[in-house]
């Protein structure tokens, strides 16, 4: 074992534990358990909001899969990754103040809460809760696997033991600390990711003998690496552009990101978060993917491309710095997993248990059920991850795109179009998920439809369906309530 | 009640405008990104010109484009967005709310 690498990682884990305990004490003093546990009492400022959005969004694929793809494919993939800069400003501007005002008035703690009040339909609630649980659970399990692999590759302990350490560290702070713990650790993790990226980028450029030198090495390996079209020239402009929907503007409808757009304190926090978030997400995405390509001449023969970041860090940095830096991908994974875990658990507790199983549950019952469900989901994910599915990014993107296709229009049109109604929302969700799955299998069998990513067509289809069905089954135009609907939050 | 409704309309109008600003930023971002990447990058790599060690398309689209968006987002936030209250304040907090609306 390489203790110089492991000690910084351990310190990082201990800090995370302390945050969980601190949040738990704060939670004990908070007024409404549910809104504090699942939303941290909506009191977050600009830096914390920006960091939690970036950290939630930036997952294993930003630090392992993405740079791995850049290592293999070259600058075409760096270009593709930069579509993610849009998430920094787009999500907060589009959901914006309206979502924050309305969700306060609704006492909404989850995305499903919002849809429930806006459309007043049990079908919408069940459909959205079901898709969140199915899709996000699979995304979470994939991240779980990623986290364990990373611990395994850093420490050399076996996979199940690594998985156990990962599960234990995540479960403890999420279960006892709730959203506040998740968000504060996200902030710590986001800062680690940001500075870690800068540090590693500089070290890689130095190790490669300067930028010009690296480019001439890349050209001698394969000149296509420095074109926008990929190492084999197969990356079309249409395909790369379609990632603007998947990982750019579509992120607005990803539940774990959207829920953060209701958690901030005031409009000043939101303004600051837009600026900080754009800079942080831009820097991390650019830096990490650039490192992926630049690592090619430094370490030419990496077989599993996903390991490029850990390997290059160990190659170009002194061990203690590598350990500190490799806390970054681990942080990215943990901060995604913790949010997903809490979101799935809030869906089960808030959207299913309180709505349909036990509407009159006491504060204490809700508390026990919330923590119990959170722990249980984590343990199930652990058990599933013991014999892991192969394609980590694949599962992750599947969940991502499927949820975008399902929620995008019910959410956005629900906010900005008063004629959007439950028929439109239900039809849009079914169309979104259904066509996503259908086109996914079509693309696997016959190549990409229209040469674009799977998510593209379902997003347009679900828009059309949402509008057509809302108009065909027209209801009275919706007005948002002008004051808080008095209800226990 | 009427008063409250008027206030709601005003805040929602601001929110709608800011959502459109978000769309405009994304469109500008996309056009810059696409234009430079495929405008300068679509020739054989031997013919690339280099700026600060990077091929021109990477420099303009990926690096300068990102810095340009950072700048544009700062300008948009500082000059186009409006500070509003997100709470449904009671009448007593009305005065404070007015102060916040610049």
From TrEMBL, chain A:
Alphabetic keyword roster: Cell membrane, Membrane, Transmembrane, Transmembrane helix, Transport
Name of the protein: Sodium/panthothenate symporter
A GO cellular component entry from the record: plasma membrane
GO process terms (BP): sodium ion export across plasma membrane
Protein localization: Membrane
Transmembrane segments: 6-23, 44-64, 70-95, 124-145, 157-179, 191-215, 235-254, 274-299, 319-349, 369-387, 393-417, 424-443, 449-473
Topology versus the membrane: Multi-pass membrane protein
Gene assigned in the entry: panF
GO MF, any single term: sodium ion transmembrane transporter activity
CDD domains for this protein: SLC5sbd_PanF (cd10327)
Similarity comment text for this entry: Belongs to the sodium:solute symporter (SSF) (TC 2.A.21) family.
Presence of the UniProt keyword Transmembrane in the record: yes
InterPro entries reported in the protein's UniProt record: Na/Glc_symporter_sf, Na/pantothenate_symporter, Na/solute_symporter, Na/solute_symporter_CS, Sodium:Solute_Symporter
Automatic annotation (TrEMBL), chain B:
Domain of life from the UniProt record: Bacteria
Protein name stated in the entry: Sodium:pantothenate symporter
Taxonomic lineage of the native organism: Bacteria, Bacillati, Bacillota, Bacilli, Bacillales
Alphabetical UniProt keywords: Membrane, Transmembrane, Transmembrane helix
Cross-referenced Pfam families: DUF997 (PF06196)
UniProt keyword Disulfide bond present: no
Membrane-spanning intervals of the chain: 20-37, 57-81
